[in-house]
Specification:
Elements (H helix, E strand, L loop, with lengths): L1 H15 L6 H18 L3 H9 L15 H13 L2 H4 L4 H18 L6 H14 L4
């Protein structure tokens, strides 16, 4: 009940003062709210099964032990690069290391709902680098 109240309070704040939050933050809160609302109608066992398929933020993946937050931050950094910067010599190696982490994440949590978007972004970054 507290979680639903906190999410509702955040949504109200975002509606009243929209310039305080970015569009990405609003999408994230909407995603959390949608799943929290859905989860409130589930039994405890169903919720545990649904929640168990998501990778925890404090688990590390790949050879360089990256968390899902680090993976997302690195994808964001690649998205901010220009097309010329994406064709720089070290980009392929950096993308390969990121791919290693995402593959490990996919192997351990194949049903994680954040995985498809991360894989799509990685594929797009490979294409921008002229590799895909």
């Amino acid at each position: 009940m507290r979680t639903a109240f906190a999410i509702s309070a955040m949504l109200l704040m975002f509606a009243v003062v929209p310039q305080l939050v970015s569009a990405d933050q609003r999408r994230h809160v909407a995603y959390v709210h949608r799943h929290a609302t859905r989860a409130s109608h589930m039994s405890a066992a169903a919720y545990a099964a649904w929640f168990h398929r998501m990778a925890p933020a404090d688990e590390y993946f790949g050879r360089f032990k990256e968390s899902i937050l680090e993976i997302r931050n690195r994808l964001d950094a690649f998205d901010r690069r220009s097309d010329a910067d994406m064709r720089a010599p070290g980009t392929r190696r950096a993308l390969d290391n990121l791919q290693d982490a995402i593959r490990d994440w996919k192997r351990k949590y194949p049903l994680d709902p954040w995985l498809p978007r991360s894989l799509h972004r990685l594929h797009r970054d490979y294409q921008r680098a002229g590799i895909g």
